[in-house]
Amino acid sequence: MSRRKEKYGGFLLTEIIVAIALLGLIISALAVSLRGFGRFNRYQLVTQQCIAAAQAQLDSMTATGKPIPGEDSERLWPDLTVTVEESPGADQWRGLTLAEATAAGKAYSKEVRISLRRYIAPQTAPTQLRRVETAAGKD
Q1: How many CB atoms lie within 10 A of CB 82?
Q2: In this structure, how many other beta carbons lie within 10 angstroms of the beta carbon of residue 18?
Q3: Rounded average pLDDT per 10-residue block, the chain, 139 residues
């Protein structure tokens, strides 16, 4: 007796179910990792905003002697809390002012807090620029 083997020309139902299950596992793992990347990206964004806000406050203190006004600070960085504290310099820094700018924000459940310090010289009156005219072409 000869047995006749029949070849099937398609996929079995179990093969399709296994392929769909594997595809679902891969997609769910990808979604979890992308969420983690998104959270880390948000944390890095808030950190950079805090650094920029604190640096801007210190630059304003250095240039004008005053921090950026509160309403401007809130307009520029609405999700951050920025504070500036001044104290006199000590020891070799006597005569200078220590300015400390602290910026804080929240990235999901993580608190981001950046504190920058700079010694600032006392403000003096700006010097008047003199225009010195020279006679060109005279020997």
Answers
A1: 22
A2: 11
A3: 64 88 94 89 94 95 89 92 92 91 93 94 59 52
| Its pTM surpasses 0.85 | no
Could you count the other beta carbons within 10 Å of the beta carbon of residue 121?
11
105: left (phi over 0), alpha (psi -120 to 50) or beta: beta
Confirm if 112 and 105 have CB atoms less than 8 A apart. yes
Structure tokens at 109: 């459940």
Short-list 52, 61, 113, 54, CA closest to 86:
61
- Residue-wise DSSP of 97-121: EEEEEEEEEEETTEEEEEEEEEEEP
